[in-house]
Amino acid sequence: MSLEYLFNGIFKNKTVFVTGHTGFIGSWLVLWLQSLGAKVIGYSLEPPTKPSLFETLSLENEITHIIGDIQDKQNLSDNIEKHKPEIVIHLAAQSLVRASYEDPSETFQTNILGAVNILDSIRKLDYVKACVIMTSDKCYQNLNSNHFHKETDPLGGNDPYSASKGAAEIITNSFRNSFFNTEKNHDKNTGIASVRAGNVIGGGDWARDRIIPDCITALTTEKKIRVRNSSSIRPWQFVLEPISGILWLSSKLYTNPKTYSTAWNFGPSQTNKITVEKIVQNIIKIWNRGDWVDVSKESKDQYIESVSLLLDSTKALNSLEWKTIYSLETAINETISWYKSYYNNHVLMRELSINQIEQYSKKANQMNIAWAIN
Q1: CATH top class, domain 6-198+239-268+307-325+350-372
Q2: How far is C-alpha 351 from the geometric centre of its chain's CA atoms?
């Protein structure tokens, strides 16, 4: 199946600069961009985990692979100017809530200065036509009220990670209005948008303190899965869902920056409200063995995470004709089948991962989703 026609074929032969390309979401994004015929320039720290999806997919030799710190403004700017990308996608971040408690300073510097550095690096460059800044669903002031957050809701965040993402949103909006406003600066035609998505599941995530990697680690070592927040609700979605949103938004920004330069939620259907406990039970069922234990009472964990985090993606549905493709059941099945193949060594993981992108795109086409229609 040829994927180059997807997203109106906008990525074929385009140079796309991706920060955070060695991470979990970044690796899936790079693999998909390659399938779309894009020339990918990756700028990131070394892969954050062992094993890592980036190394599993052998991406290093397939793209222009640059090891660099998003906090190093000069190095970042020099590489952007050297490669002259038409599209910039900023994913680089310290992405874990618990790690933000352990090192808040590093979290703020990476997530806040990172956004400043990428936007400041491109604000005088005419060849950059679209820039997407990925933040998080945790950027909202969350009162745990089972409220589905809209893009117009107040930003906030009690923990350092959430606060850093709220700040990144404010910074993005500031740069957009100060330097990329097409009404004020008629010579500017760069689209700047932010994306709020979270609780992504899929094969190849080995980050600590995330429910899927925690489950896989326990299951492959025949230990009980230790669950801290069994009643917490999250907007679970398959990894390709927000990536399809990012790619579709990038293509829209490229052709019509004025209309699409704003903030966007990419979250699952509002019916996909499910607790951590249910997720764990489903994973054990698919894995066909294993057990779990609730450790919330025995854990003296001072790190507080939100009980409920929910997104309203109506704006993306109405204005981008974007919505999630997979049910939560399918998302879990695709995720666990990836890990089963990895640990059983039954197939080449790059081929399997490309096949998952192809099957996801095929399903989107069958559903007449705008980005997947030829």
Answers
A1: alpha beta
A2: 21
Q: Which residues of 219-244 are buried (b: 16+ CB within 10 A; e: fewer)?
A: beeeeebbbbbbebbbbbbbbbbbbb
What's the token pair of residue 81?
Answer: 């100017």
User: pTM to 2 decimals?
Assistant: 0.94
Alpha-carbon distance of 132 to 249, in angstroms, equals: 8
The residues near 245 (Cβ < 8 Å, ≥ 6 apart) are 195, 197, 264, 266, 316, 320, 322
Mean pLDDT across the stretch 48-57? Answer: 94
- pLDDT at residue 300, rounded to an integer: 52
Which residues is 238 bridged to in the sheet? 201
pLDDT digits (tens, 9 = 90+) for 280-312: 999 999 999 999 998 877 655 555 555 557 889
| Residue 3 binned pLDDT confidence (cut-offs 50, 70, 90) | very high
Q: Which two tokens stand for residue 358?
A: 């192809």
Nearest in space to 199 (alpha carbons), one of 309, 108, 92: 309
Encoded tokens for 97: 């809530």
Per residue, the 3-state secondary structure of 10-61, as one string, reads CCCCCEEEEECCCCHHHHHHHHHHHHCCCEEEEEECCCCCCCCHHHHCCCCC
Query: Which two three-digit tokens encode residue 15?
Result: 């140079």
Domain residue limits, the chain: 6-198+239-268+307-325+350-372
Rounded CA-CA distance 275/235 in Å is 9
Report in angstroms the alpha-carbon separations of 366 from 270, 320, 355.
22, 17, 16
> What's the Cα-to-Cα distance from 341 to each of 19, 55, 239, 338, 359, rounded to whole Å?
28, 16, 17, 5, 17
Rounded to 10 deg, the angle between the 276-287 and 328-344 helix axes is 50
